[in-house]
Amino acid sequence: MASSAAAARLASKTGLAAAATALVGAFYSSFDNKRSNNDDVSSNKSVHLSGHHALLPPPLHLSTAYCEKPKLSEAGNVIKEQEKEKPKSSDPADYAGGAAQFGASASDAEGLVRISCKEACLLEHIVGSNKSNFALQLPTNKHIQQYHGLFPRRQLWRPRLEYPLWDYEWDGRQPLPLAAASDSNTTMTESQRERWIRKEGVTRHVILIRHGQYDETYPQDEKRILTPLGRLQAQATGKRIGEYIRGVNAEFGPCHVKVMRVSDLARAKETAQIIHDNLGVDMVEMADPDELLNEGRPCHHIPGGRARQSVIERTDEHHPRIEKAFRKYFYRADPPALPSSESTLATSSITTSSSTSSNTSDNNKLTPHPKHEFEIIVCHANVIRYFFCRALQLPPEAWLRLCVFNCSLTYLTIRPTGSVSCRMLGDIGHLPYELSTFSMHTGFNW
């Protein structure tokens, strides 16, 4: 038991509390080996501890190879404390390179861990009876700064809450508790307020459309225009969105599309204009192009090999911009005003249920639902896949596992309570097979 406690303390001090059991197991295994054949634990007196958590640093080593080698008798006063990794603020403005929540500080350094004499005795059993000098060797500065040897740890996305918990404060719009709200004069309980917001609030619908196929042979953006096939894709997409806006009947009613947004790259602007020209309606606002939506490398992707320096630099350049675009366009609608009495709540519930049973006016003209608003964003494959992962609070590093074809629709809903769901991912049901492309790849045989 004493050895187990010492091992746990030792593992905790090295930032590897989860590996305490492995350390004790290594001790007993080595102790049994010594009793059976009187051999040393290993020829190089090294023990590896494997962490089970993805964010743990690389395995520790008990080794004689460290440049400073205090004797066993000095192990209770090891010269240097480990500098521990300190997570950075979740505020994107706090990231030195501008990348929101991109990992922890990279100020970790090589060092030794302070251990007690009792813990030194445990180490003595693990290393062997040889009283040669040894020290606890931590990962090098280079290893600590790298995430599994793939890319700098500081560029790893760190969620505010651990996966798979849902962060209701993801957009900074989660209402304060009623007790803490200074302007609240309602008699509602928290559960009543949540039901009220769910019923009376507005649901935001965001439809992301990838641009049509374009000519990739030119480096200049102004020459990277749509191919004839890409223009056909955009026309078909415009007709489909037009059906959403007009509606079909009272059951499949019209969708209130407030605005169409677009990136500032030629292929996206051309696609958006063709879509707009084929809507069959002239009530949709075309917003000015937004360079925040331009294509780029939103973050690293896993699986993937070790990132080259140029890729690391490009990620530092592009991530803050694309993350800023996400925060600009993905958020829940403003909450509805709260009723001042329970009678108002009951009356409104009755009115809501009756008024939403039909979306036709007196002259039988189809009208959009007042509690649903749509935005269309014409942009790019990497941006769309990153938005998808961020909106659903999935690891953004999974973005390259997804595929969105040219002029495909990725459709996300943001409820007034802050929950987000996906209704379509890369949908190309409006395109015939001969118009199905992923960049210059045609069809599905690639």
Automatic annotation (TrEMBL):
Where is the region Disordered? Answer: 340-367
Low complexity: bias regions: 340-361
The GO terms describing molecular function are: hydrolase activity
| Record keyword Cell inner membrane present | no
Q: Which domain of life is it from?
A: Eukaryota
Gene3D superfamilies given for it? Phosphoglycerate mutase-like (3.40.50.1240)
Q: Which Pfam families match?
A: His_Phos_1 (PF00300)
The entry's keywords: Hydrolase
Does the record's keyword annotation contain Hydrolase? yes
Q: Which family does it belong to?
A: Belongs to the phosphoglycerate mutase family. BPG-dependent PGAM subfamily.
The name under which this protein is listed is: Serine/threonine-protein phosphatase PGAM5, mitochondrial
Taxonomic lineage: Eukaryota, Sar, Stramenopiles, Ochrophyta, Bacillariophyta
